[in-house]
Amino acid sequence: MDRIVIEGGAPLRGEVAVSGAKNAALPALAAALLAEGEHSVRNVPDLADVRTMGRLLGHMGCAFERTGGHAVALRVPAAPRPEAPYELVRTMRASVVVLGPLVARLGRAQVSLPGGCAIGARPIDQHLKGLAALGAEIELRHGYVEARAPGGRLRGATFTFDGVTVTGTENVMMAAALAEGTSVLGNCAREPEVVDLAQALRSMGARIQGEGTDEIRIEGVERLRPLDHAVIPDRIEAGTLLVAGALPGNDVTVRGCAPEHLEALVEKLRQVGAEVRSVPGGLRVVGDGRPRPADVRTAPFPGFPTDMQAQMMVLLTVAQGSSVVTETVFENRYMHVLELRRLGADIAVDGRTALVKGVPELSGAPVMASDLRASAALVLAGLLARGTTEVQRVYHLDRGYERLEERLAPLGARIRRVKA
Ligand code: EPZ
Hints:
This protein is of the alpha/beta class and 420 residues long. Helix content is 30%, strand content 25%. It has helices at 22-31, 48-59, 86-89, 99-106, 125-133, 166-177, 192-203, 235-246, 263-271, 309-317, 335-342, 372-384, 395-398, 404-408, and strands at residues 3-7, 13-17, 37-42, 63-66, 72-76, 83-84, 108-112, 137-141, 144-148, 158-160, 182-186, 207-209, 216-219, 228-230, 251-255, 275-279, 282-286, 296-297, 322-326, 346-350, 353-357, 366-368, 388-392, 414-418. The chain is elongated and about 65 Å long. Ligand EPZ binds at residues 23, 26, 94, 120-127, 163, 165-168, 189, 193, 306-307, 329-330, 372-373, 400.
């Protein structure tokens, strides 16, 4: 297993470009199942999770090919095999977004239930409830969701999610795109990735309105055409790089990000004393001295993203005072805390709340990544800490960041990957 070794304390200066969004690319690729033919998706990051989605689509009989740069060509047959096996779903929960497209287009689907997860229970009851509202008959058997559309086609319906779910909204929106009649979905996720998926679906001829608000209206159509879509920039990768820029003594420009997707984070960075400025095509952040403390509460978009909680916490570990972090989206997303403590951070967790007492500095140590964003936080902590930090289990990082060490090194970071 690869490791990342960081000699902390080197100032970061310069520009770094952001990749396409993992969490927008995955549902867009799943959306291709809604139409037979040759699909084109651009700005698709080259990540382990995207490769898993490519394998999953391959298992269904689709041909997935990278055609240079970050473009993907996808050929979807007339009758894909409507099955997502456990071996693939267990390595990537987001595989569940194939369920809606499969049952909508083929009238049946068999998708493995995702297993446990490091950050919380993460049930998919809302995905299933939404699809059932569209008329799907759903059974759970041998660890699989078996869904059928009676008569071969789903029916439009009005459905309100009990809680805000990003991939749940995406799954049901994709299914409704091919259902007979109109669907009105309430309490929808407003995340930019949902908006991007609506745009992708529109390139296929879907009739959708209201994405980005909590009510999405979809007029089902009988047939869709292949996708022609470019994925939005990754706001979480951009956010991670912005936090790197906000660490004391750094000055980083993140190019190609969408500032309108980063407002909650930028506001927090300013609150802790970082200078964040819009520059042509991006954001520049300057971290000046030890940050001020700040309270952070995660929430669905436009709130502070749970996917940035661990990275922001790193900045707060060296603040001049105490901060309270509250995680409201997932029930167990503090796996990074134990590792940050090994670097000298003073953090106490009580349920969903973490009290972070700022210390003057962190000191490098070997640490272990537990999930994707926790790994990114450990890399940031390594940049900040005095001495050497070695991050193990880097495969978690590689699921969502394209060669992060190669993006940070040109900024001046002393960071390298040690191949297993
Ligand atoms: C998406 O996961 C993202 N993944 C996650 O990114 C992100 O952390 C999360 O949204 C929240 O923003 C993708 O887009 C592929 P949810 P998702 O359904 O859709 C509960 C990363 O690091 N819930 O919005 O699975 C759930 O348990 C990741 O890139 C139900 O109770 O998250 C959680 O507490 C990790 N029943 C809350 O809702 C359901 O049916 C929000 O989860 C569905 C969800």
